[in-house]
Design a protein that fits this description.
Strand order of the largest sheet: 4-5-6-7-16-13-12-9-10
CATH class of one domain: Mainly Beta
Structural class: alpha+beta
Number of strands: 38
Distance between the termini: 51 Å
Shape: globular
Number of helices: 15
CATH superfamily of one domain: alpha-galactosidase from lactobacil brevis
Strand content: 25-35%
Radius of gyration: 26 Å
CATH architecture of one domain: Distorted Sandwich
Length: about 675
């Protein structure tokens, strides 16, 4: 019997069965062939096809309704190279609800994204719209037991962004949902599904509020993926238009799952990150301003113009060359009034530079940074949280959302309020010579949103708010073409597909400042999906400083006190600059995806540049690890090539073939709490 023909018949029967099981979902076949994204878009959004999104409309499933609605699929002009773009529309002839799906595909990465909008073109409120899932499809695959690689969100712990693997048996479900209204608080909206060896799809969810995603193994050959907004259950008013989440799929095939992770990282850099002059940007190496003065001062509440400039002068005197000087919280009026119990946190909403400490505003600091230090000037804001009694709360109570307490939420969902805040903050940036904008968000907004929903309109306050957030950031980026946005929300609690288009987290977690083992874990986990992120570096000991390696950093060195030699600080800065470009290349974990938080282990990873076959191995022997030796298996090296390896800062050197390095390289360190940085070429 022809076994190939037999196998094809079995595969056809499996597909027929899967069709019956998942007929209400879009069905995507992963059959080992590369994905033609334009053909994929035309097929998935064709009139006769169930699209890869879903919702309930008046308790009726969209899969049942959409075939009866008016449909169109229009090709749009692409906005960049290697892109195809379409818009699919579905209109209910009875109620006038129009569903628009903007779809883009990138042919160089086999990636596709779509964004869902709803508009009531009728004259009466619509039936209830609920269970909106921007992503709703079935992956049909030829091999059982798919594996999902996902990560923790952030809750200021050592385990922030820790990677996990889970192999799904039939009827297994992996459920994820963000907490409190910030998109990476408690869950992480990126994951990678390996459906068979060296084949799969990377998934990203774009919603900066509350989202959920379920991954379900329906049977041995069918994996269901859904993601959407759990809080939305609302009628849409006449003339009203809302957007919901976006979704991205990147189809990949290669040697192993890391092929998918690295293709996704490169896709994000190439097509879904901030561009300046049409080119992807590198987020900066920052210098601080001696964070934290003696109590009762906190943050930068005792900073002055003269002191800030003196610290920049001192930085230059010691030979440091940061690309940016970072002024954090506490520069505004009342923040320094410690005699009255005021501080940086309970005076937000007073966005005016303190005239006693900064009599000429912050402008002299920004001008000195640019004109004398050849650096940019970044300043901290938290405009969404407004404290009771502040200028904004007193002057514009009509724009405050509250669920009780002293913290209000500025209502970005009100178009007038959003426009006012956009111009207000934009003017502050311009008047104070601020180049980079740091936005914090130290409040969980979900309860406030829910408290301000009207009957029959659950989730609408959140939807409008998130729309306003994107409009606000887009305004700033358009007004200031070279602006970079540092996205901080009590650390990295608002990281998702939409925010990464506009920003990056330069302070990715509020976990114990400077604790090196946690920083190692955070780098290791985030690098599976995102290349652009940074943290603080406090000390020059290699174990500490290498724990903070990444594509960006803020050097929080105290330049006004004894303790560490500035010559060692300079060496640390130079080493960071040498390694930094490799964080924009490919990442390979060398310590697996188990528990990486312990003090008794080695942790190692590899950064690899395919274009010239060079790279770095970064490894840590932690304080309680009893093993002097640790074997790692390098990836991406060419088996029949010979590589030279040398450990930075030591005399250790060796040569080995790529095949030998793939089979095992023994790392060795005699001292606990030590690190290795090995360059290979």
């Amino acid at each position: 019997m022809n076994t190939n023909l037999y196998g094809k018949w079995i595969w056809a029967l499996v597909m027929l069965f899967s069709f019956q099981v998942c007929r209400a979902q879009s069905r995507v076949m992963l059959d080992g062939k590369s994905t033609d994204v334009e053909r994929w878009i035309k097929r998935e959004f064709a009139r006769s096809h169930v699209p890869p999104f879903s919702f309930l409309y008046g308790s009726q499933p969209s899969a049942k309704l959409l075939p009866k609605w008016k449909h169109s699929l229009q090709r749009l002009e692409p906005t960049e190279d290697n892109q195809v773009a379409y818009i699919a529309t579905y209109t209910d002839p009875t109620t006038g609800l129009r569903v628009s799906c903007e779809v883009k595909g990138w042919t160089d990465f086999d990636a596709v994204e779509w964004l869902l909008r709803f508009e009531n073109t009728g004259s009466a409120p619509t039936p209830q719209l609920s269970q909106v899932r921007t992503l709703d499809l079935s992956l049909l695959h030829p091999v059982s037991a798919p594996t999902v690689c996902f990560a923790n969100g952030s809750n200021a712990s050592r385990a922030d962004f820790a990677p996990h693997e889970r192999t799904l048996s039939v009827n297994d479900t992996l459920a994820m949902q963000s907490l409190g209204g910030r998109s990476s608080d408690g869950a992480f909206p990126f994951y990678n599904v390996e459906t068979s060896t060296g084949r799969g799809v990377a998934v990203a969810i774009g919603w900066s509020g509350t989202w959920h995603s379920d991954i379900v193994a329906r049977d041995e050959r069918t994996l269901s993926l859904t993601a959407g907004l759990p809080t939305l259950d609302a009628r849409i008013e006449p003339g009203e238009k809302i957007r919901v989440a976006s979704a991205c799929l990147l189809f990949w095939q290669g040697e192993n799952r890391m092929t998918g992770h690295n293709r996704f990282r490169r896709y994000m850099l190439a097509h879904h990150s901030r561009k300046v002059d049409g080119k992807p940007v590198w987020y900066p190496i920052c210098g601080g301003f001696n964070w934290g003065d003696p109590a009762p001062c906190n943050e930068y509440t005792c900073m002055t113009t003269e002191y800030a400039i003196a610290l920049m002068q001192r930085t230059r005197m010691f030979g440091f060359t940061p690309e940016c000087f970072w002024l954090d919280a506490g520069w505004y009026i009342e923040a320094a009034d410690y005699a009255s119990g005021k501080n940086w946190a309970n005076t937000v909403g007073n966005w005016v530079p303190d005239p006693e400490r900064f009599p000429q505003t912050l402008r002299p600091i920004g001008q000195y940074a640019k004109e004398k230090a050849n650096a940019r000037f970044m300043v901290w804001f938290e405009p969404e949280r407004v404290f009771r009694g502040s200028l904004w709360e007193r002057n514009h109570p009509e724009w405050m959302l509250s669920a009780g307490g002293d913290n209000f939420l500025f209502n970005l969902g009100d178009p007038k309020a959003c426009q006012w805040m956009s111009k207000c903050i934009g003017d502050i940036l311009e008047e104070n010579s601020i180049d980079y904008y740091r936005q914090d968000f130290n409040i969980a907004p979900a309860d406030i949103w829910a408290a301000n929903d009207k009957p029959g309109r659950s989730g609408i306050t959140e939807v409008k708010y998130i729309e306003g957030l994107y409009a606000y950031w887009d305004y700033l980026l358009q007004r200031f073409p070279k602006l970079l946005i540092d996205n901080c929300a009590s650390g990295g609690r608002r990281l998702d597909y939409e925010t990464m288009l506009r920003s990056a987290p330069l302070w990715r977690t509020d976990y114990q400042y400077g604790e090196p083992v946690g920083y190692q874990c955070h780098t290791y986990g985030l690098e599976f999906f995102l290349a652009q992120h940074g943290t603080g570096s406090y000390h020059v000991d290699p174990f500490d400083s290498r724990s903070a390696l990444g594509s960006a950093v803020v050097f929080n060195w105290k330049l006004t006190q004894m303790g560490e030699a500035f010559t060692d600080m300079k060496k640390t800065e130079d080493e960071f600059r040498q390694v930094r470009p490799y964080f924009y290349e490919d990442f390979y974990p060398l310590s697996g995806t188990g528990d990486i938080t312990g003090d008794n282990i080695w942790l190692a990873y590899q950064l690899h540049r395919p274009s010239d076959q060079t790279g770095y191995i970064v490894a840590f022997r932690r304080a309680q690890c009893p093993d002097e030796k640790y074997v790692v298996q390098l990836q991406a090296v060419v088996p029949d090539k010979t590589y030279s390896l040398e450990a930075v800062g030591t005399d250790w050197k060796m040569t080995a073939t790529g095949d030998e390095l793939r089979r095992g390289l023994t790392l060795q360190s005699a001292q606990p709490r030590s690190s290795l940085l090995i360059f290979y070429h």
